[in-house]
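seq:
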Amino acid sequence: MGWGLLFVSGLCLGFYLLYINGLFMLSAKIAVIFVGYIRKNGEAALQFAGCNGQVKRVLRFHKAGDYEFVYRSEISEGAVTLQILDEKRRELISCMGMNYAAKLEAEEKKRYYMVFRFNNATGKCSVMWN
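struct:
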């Protein structure tokens, strides 16, 4: 019984380390269809139908500086909100419209969170940053 608990604890620790380093994504959603990706190299593209919930990914920038985020969406039903949060989970950028552009002054090696929130949404959206 002790080995099982140790294995599960090690597995949870491994997933947590992957998540905080931006190699793992957390997803808590219900959808009829959900297809997409959020890559570390500066792009994300999602297509969904009847989606409720959220998808969260950690972003780490290896160089300090200004990064421009460009959000594009084609939503036929519901609403999608993109948020960029700092490591204390304070909102830095919030996008809800069709097209949106914003700049982020990122610090080197700091952790930022990209969160997509879906409210009975159908359509597609994309984000690019550089």
